[in-house]
């Protein structure tokens, strides 16, 4: 089998409500769909988050073409080593999502070529479905309270809420409202996206712990691991590393410093599914659990991750997905996409060969057109935040 074409299609899918974080917002997500065609008539699917932008992803994909075209997509290690070493793409970062999309397409082809789901290649099913948290957009307390009720009614076990507002009282009011709306049994995970200094983080988390927190995600800078370890040692709530934990090298450093209780891992930020499995293995050797992170993804990348998470024991917490925010998806059927496709916050492992999902051509065209006409509206930005020239940390 040989690769004969690599096609990339940027798409934009709206949210039902804005995603808001400490320094901006977006009204939908952009992904780049990848279709890897072969001389045997099979096509493999991949997906790259538009990180840091769709233009960057498309540029990387063009740069990868000479390394991919004519290669055997079933020799996955050899192809990725060619990309990393010969192509000098081994410096993970903004190039990683495009590489991950190419690698995912290879796994899809491998599964399709032998009639097996991708989960079979990563150890087989340890679990039959994968749990995800309910993403609660940062908003007025009454809106947060209502979304907490929606999450509980949908059967979710964990809600995720961005914190790091300009005033701590705003965060406290939102978390209190979420607890009231979701009820006493709901796990609440908060994410500050590095918004706080160590002293401010301790003050903030202690104020929020009254409402019962499952995890506190990246309260301080991910580039100062001794300070992360300091904050971790003084909190009762377990600390989840995210910005400190983009790739395997980062995770090793976090472990050496004892800087987190749980680590976030992401196939997009570390170049593919093999590295997602390796990240989890590194953390398992240290006796720690992991959470799948997401930069924003649709059904192709989500299905790919589900196969690996289902085969890996130490994914013990609810993972990140966008079902509570998305209005639609680009794959056929009921996998991924909006909240109604989840059961008690969980998605089943697809049974079909490869990733087990197919693109819906009509939806791909619709959201490709939306990207062409309004793509700039879906970037992470906020006119008010841009005028304010925000800086890290906030306090």
Entry keywords:
about 400 residues, alpha/beta, seven-stranded parallel beta sheet, globular
Write up what this structure looks like:
It is built from 12 helices and 12 strands. It has helices at residues 54-68, 76-86, 96-114, 141-153, 168-182, 198-208, 225-233, 248-257, 273-285, 299-310, 361-374, 383-388, and strands spanning 3-21, 24-38, 43-49, 129-131, 134-136, 158-162, 187-191, 215-217, 239-241, 262-265, 289-292, 346-348. Strand 6 (158-162), helix 5 (168-182) and strand 7 form a beta-alpha-beta unit. Helix 4 runs parallel beside helix 5 and helix 6 packs parallel to helix 7 (225-233). The longest helix has 19 residues, at 96-114. The protein starts with a strand and ends in a 7-residue tail after the last helix. The mean pLDDT is 95.
């Amino acid at each position: 089998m040989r690769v004969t074409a690599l096609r990339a299609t940027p798409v934009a899918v709206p949210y039902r409500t804005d995603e808001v974080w400490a320094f901006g917002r977006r009204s939908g997500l952009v992904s780049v769909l990848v279709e890897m065609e072969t001389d045997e008539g099979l096509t493999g699917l991949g997906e790259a988050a538009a990180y840091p932008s769709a233009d960057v992803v498309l540029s990387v994909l063009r740069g990868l073409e000479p390394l991919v075209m004519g290669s055997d997509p079933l020799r996955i290690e050899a192809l990725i080593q060619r990309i990393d070493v010969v192509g000098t793409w081994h410096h993970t970062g903004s190039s990683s999502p495009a590489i991950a999309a190419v690698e995912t397409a290879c796994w899809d082809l491998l599964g399709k070529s032998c009639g097996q789901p991708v989960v079979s290649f990563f150890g087989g099913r340890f679990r039959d479905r994968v749990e995800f948290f309910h993403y609660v957009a940062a908003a007025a307390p009454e809106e947060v309270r209502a979304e907490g009720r929606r999450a509980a009614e949908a059967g979710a076990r964990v809600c995720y809420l961005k914190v790091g507002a300009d005033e701590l009282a705003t965060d406290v009011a939102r978390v209190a409202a979420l607890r009231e709306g979701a009820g006493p049994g709901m796990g609440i995970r908060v994410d500050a996206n590095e918004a706080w200094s160590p002293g401010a983080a301790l003050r903030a988390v202690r104020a929020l712990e009254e409402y019962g927190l499952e995890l506190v995600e990246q309260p301080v800078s991910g580039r100062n691991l001794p300070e992360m370890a300091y904050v971790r040692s003084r909190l009762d709530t377990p600390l989840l590393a995210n910005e400190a934990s983009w790739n395997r090298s980062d995770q090793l450093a976090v472990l050496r410093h004892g800087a987190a209780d749980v680590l976030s891992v992401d196939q997009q930020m570390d170049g593919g599914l093999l590295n997602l499995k390796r990240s989890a293995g590194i953390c398992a050797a240290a006796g720690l659990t992991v959470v799948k992170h997401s930069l924003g993804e649709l059904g192709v990348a989500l299905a790919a991750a589900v196969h690996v998470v289902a085969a890996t024991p130490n994914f013990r917490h609810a993972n990140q997905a966008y079902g509570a925010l998305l209005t639609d998806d680009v794959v056929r059927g009921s996998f991924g996409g909006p909240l109604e496709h989840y059961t008690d916050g969980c998605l089943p492992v697809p049974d079909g060969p490869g990733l087990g999902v197919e693109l819906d051509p009509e939806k791909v065209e619709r959201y490709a057109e939306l990207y062409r006409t309004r793509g700039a509206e879906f970037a992470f930005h906020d006119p008010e935040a841009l005028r304010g020239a925000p800086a890290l940390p906030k306090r």
